[in-house]
Design goal:
Elements: H1 3-26, H2 34-51, H3 58-74, H4 78-90, H5 99-106, H6 112-127, H7 133-149
Helix pairs in contact: 1-2, 1-3, 1-4, 6-7
């Protein structure tokens, strides 16, 4: 994707993130704590200002994308679902990454980031019905194998 189009799409995605968080605040949503939502809005506004700098590099854009989408790829809840729905409605070229699906397909944890991700989400995803008992058993084995490898 051309750098300028990529930059504009990333700004639009962050503006959607701000709208979703503002909606959560306005509706007294329990998606996350109010102070955290206000902090995230402020952070995204700062990132948007940084993205508007004329000398920003493609590498910097990639870092912003990774940092911005981490919560929306790893998180769950009303705010996350609202975000991805709005991204799709706007026709932006971003898709939710199915990190757990990739790990289950590979049948192992190969990166420390994947290990940390599984440790962060396995319980909540199971409680929300996003993981079956079989998925949890497989993921726990992958975690155990990864820990043994050190």
């Amino acid at each position: 994707m051309e750098k300028e189009i990529y930059r504009q799409n990333l700004i639009k995605a962050m503006q959607i993130g701000i709208k979703v968080y503002q909606n959560c605040i306005d509706n007294n949503s329990q998606a996350r704590l109010l102070k955290e939502l206000e902090y995230e809005i402020s952070l995204y506004e700062g990132w948007i200002n940084d993205l508007k700098q004329p000398n920003i590099t493609k590498v910097a854009l990639n870092y912003f994308e990774n940092d911005f989408f981490t919560y929306y790829n790893e998180g769950s809840g009303e705010d996350v679902e609202m975000f991805w729905k709005a991204i799709k409605e706007e026709g932006l070229p971003f898709e939710r990454k199915d990190i757990i699906g990739k790990i289950l397909k590979k049948k192992k944890l190969s990166k420390h980031e994947d290990y940390e991700y599984i440790m962060d989400v396995i319980q909540s995803f199971y409680e929300e019905g996003k993981l079956t008992d079989e998925d949890v058993a497989k993921l726990n084995k992958f975690v155990s194998d990864y820990e043994k490898r050190g």
